[in-house]
Amino acid sequence: MMEIEKDMDVDDSHILARQKSNQREILLDYDYKKCAGCSICVALCPKNALQEGPLQEIAKGLDAPPILIDLDACAFCGMCVNFCPTKAFKMTVLELPEEERAKEAAKSAGAEA
Amino acid sequence: MPTGVYVCHCGLNIAGVLNVEDLKSFAETLPGVAVARDLQFSCSDIGQEQIQKDIAEHKLDRVVVAACSPRLHEPTFRRAISKAGLNPYMLEMANIREQCSWVHMDQPAMATEKAKDLIRMAVAKAELLEPLEPESIPVSKDVLVIGGGVAGIAAALDLADAGLHVYLVERRPTIGGYMALLTDVFPTNDCSICVLGPKMSEVYNHPNITLYTYSEVLGVEGSVGNFTVSGVRRARYVDEKLCKGCINECASACPVEISSEYDFGIGKRKAIYVPYPQAVPLAACIDPKACIGCARCAEACPADAVRLEQEPQDFKLNVGAIIVATGWQPFDAARKEEYGFGRYRDVVTTLQVERMLNASGPTKGEVVRPSTGEIAGSIAFLQCVGSRDETVGNPYCSRICCMASLKNAQLVKEKYPDTDITIYYIDIRACGEGYEEFYIRAQRLGINFVRSRVSGIEEVKGQISLIFEDTQTGQIKRAEHDLAVLSVGLEPDSNAEVLGNLLGLSRRPDRFFEIAHPKMRPVEAHIDGIFIAGCASGPKEIPISIAQGSAAAAKAVKLLHRGFLELEPTSAYVDSDKCIQCKLCVDICPKKAIAVKSPAYVDEAACKGCGSCAAACPVDAIDMRFFSDQQILAQVKAATEVKREFPLIVAFLCNWCSYGAADLAGTSRIQYPTNARNIRVMCSARVDPSFVLDALRRGADGVLIAGCRIGECHYKDGNYQALQRVNVLKGVLEKVGLDPGRVKIVWCAASEGEIYARDLREFIAELKAMGPIGTELKRRQDGQKPDLILPENGSKEGGAA
């Protein structure tokens, strides 16, 4: 079984969701300052991992992300990235180098044993 | 063109009624006849030797034998003359026994006159015979099997073991069909996959089988012996060779979960999945409709087998025969709205229960209530859901549901003896080896049987409540259960419809594929070289599907094992100068043997020689090698040359049924008047309207066309075409002022000699009432100014009257 780790960080207006397996690291970067709150991503997310935030309050001036990410549900498929009209989502995939993969694999094997 | 004519005594069978001497001397006077003899028994060795001696002595190049029916001894005499060096097709027979001496025993003088006409007709036709050579064409020894269910597997393995190469095309990602999903199977309750699994892997490993799973046939061209098949192998997005079939690595990483079609909606699968642990080939497959493209599976796969960039691949095959084993699909229980399937969670179908009972199924062998997940304490089985039911358009019995419910009920009872089980049935149909015993065993186990048809299901306080009439007491009752199992019927696979159209298969009213003969040819389609096995031709149990698969394989081996096919030289051919490319013949051909590729072209391997195209061609560009227009017209002319009786009828009888019926009337000694002069044609559709008009023009009082019973044509629907032409002809006759009743079409099966005789008697009576041909024209002329003039030779008709 492939081990998958996920975590989430906030850096200024960027919400950084990260998924790490023994093969690669995927970073989903949501810059809510760029987000127009159109909710296209909410409608198309195949895992229903995206939800609308307090849009009315934000419209009245509240500083909050218009879209909320459910990290547990997110599959890091990248559909929101591809469809976002304001390019508020960005995704970077970091393939782990060969030796690190082996190390990770050994680690997870060790953890299982 | 020296012709020899041999009049057979057949002991006293012919000579006892007809004046054979007179016939012989009559034959001598006919044009082209070099020698005429009467023989005691022409089919005996002495008779045959005499014919062979004359061929050598008189340099005969064609032979007429006036004896029994050609359906009996034509092969004998063909052999005899070919031994003497003549082409076997230079023979013509005059049927003066079955259709003359045996049916006119009490009117010898008239019968002798009729026999003279029959001999004159035969000699006239013989004059125009051409030597024909049976052609042989090389064939592909490969066979395409469409459908990898149990019938297709049986066919593929038998063919491969016999040394033929097999291409097995399956639409799903695994072979095995429905049988692979069942739990134990009746009547012995042995595990289904345990007996099928080894066969599936045998298919996969057989050197003579090329397996195309997740593939579809898209086009079929050509005919028996040489079909060109094109198809596509859909993208699995997984390299079949690299995938180790470890099942869980990729699937457990996949974030998408949907309901599994292999569990009929009660289990779940991922977007990347192996259908079931015993799947063949054991390789994962990505469902493109469900996949969200996250590529986690690609990461998780230890063999690096995931190929998200994979494309569909086209393939092209050349095969000699095709076996269609496309199987069935379950009736959609939601169509019976009154049973609430899809609304009440505790109403399930047989197949869902099969999956529940299956140890590797979604509930690991427990029969549970889907609403609570608890083991069901009381179960109702409802029979005939979607079978024997006109309201959903399925009047037929699905054959396996009674036994399947008996089996499932027994399995539940054995596992949980306290379960209360009731089967609500119309009739229990347990006919098969060991089936009745199986039924009795179910009764002994304490399973309840209620003869009824359930009218509706309601959910009352979380319980399933059935409303039904107990048809043994006549009372309307209600009964509560934890779980209701709908025994859904079998329907033809809806995906096979397109394939059926590609292959030119016909369908029965029940929408299953039609076989060439409901009894005698159970695995053959109407199209040569195509065979049908298993549930594609109707609901069947596993053993019968296997038997049909093997039978279809044997038929294909018989067809192809020599590597060449011998063709009967009776096919149609096209005069390319005359063809106007109207494509009428393409639509009319029952064997799909004609293609219009500027001009029309007849595939002689596929043509069966019915002659419907020749009759339909508006410019007479198509003719037949045997039963040519010229030959038939010569027979018509000879039949009407001397008119010794009234009414004189020219009758066209189809070779398969009506000619057989006329022969049977003879062997049963049914007596009828001598008025008809019979002309044998391969099919009633061969009768060109011009033959009929020519007969009437030459003074025949009526024309009879007899075909197989409607729906029983040996070429599919030739008799419908004949009927349509006769209806048009009647209109033409009316226009020219003749009684449309002068042409009549009748149907009789080969077993209906009595009906043939009756129809003929009726027609004679009708014609007598009408008077001789042309009477109606004269009457008209006398009455008032004629408003219509016969197109040609009108005077001749008047003269005949």
CATH architecture of the largest domain in chain B: 3-Layer(bba) Sandwich
Helix content of chain B: 25-40%
Number of domains of chain B: 6
Query: Which bin fits the share of residues in helices of chain A?
Result: 25-40%
What's the CATH class of chain A, please? Alpha Beta
Share of β-strand residues of chain A: 25-35%
Contiguous uncertain segments of 5+ residues of chain B: 786-790, 793-801
User: Order of helices and strands of chain A, N to C?
Assistant: EEEHEHEHEH
* Secondary-structure-derived class of chain A: alpha+beta
Q: How does the overall form of chain A come out from the CA principal axes?
A: elongated
Considering residues with a beta carbon less than 8 A from a beta carbon on another chain, report the largest interface and each chain's count: A-B, 13 and 13 residues
Strand order of the largest sheet of chain A: 1-2-3-6
Would you give an account of this structure?
- The complex is a heterodimer of chains A (113) and B (801).
- Chain A contains four helices and six strands.
- Chain A has a single domain, classed as Alpha-Beta Plaits (2-Layer Sandwich).
- The model of chain A has no long low-confidence stretch (mean pLDDT 88).
- With 113 residues, chain A is α+β, with helices and mostly antiparallel strands.
- In chain A, the strands form two sheets. In chain A, strands 1-2-3-6 form a four-stranded antiparallel β-sheet. A two-stranded antiparallel sheet of chain A has the order 4-5.
- Chain B is of the alpha/beta class.
- Chain B has six domains: 1-132, 3-Layer(aba) Sandwich (Rossmann fold); 138-234 and 312-327 and 493-567, 3-Layer(bba) Sandwich (FAD/NAD(P)-binding domain); 236-310, Alpha-Beta Plaits, CATH 3.30.70; 330-492, FAD/NAD(P)-binding domain (3-Layer(bba) Sandwich); 568-622, 2-Layer Sandwich (Alpha-Beta Plaits), CATH 3.30.70; 626-801, 3-Layer(aba) Sandwich (Rossmann fold), CATH 3.40.50.
- In chain B, the strands form twelve sheets. Chain B has a seven-stranded mixed β-sheet with strand order 20-26-21-22-23-24-25.
- In chain B, helix 12 links the parallel strand 22 (420-425) and strand 23.
- The radius of gyration of chain B is 33 Å and the shape is elongated.
- The two termini of chain B are 35 Å apart.
- In chain B, 52% of the residues are buried.
- Classes of the chains: A alpha+beta (113), B alpha/beta (801).
- The A-B interface holds A 1-2, 4, 21, 23-24, 46-47, 75-79 and B 248-249, 252-253, 255-256, 292-296, 299-300.
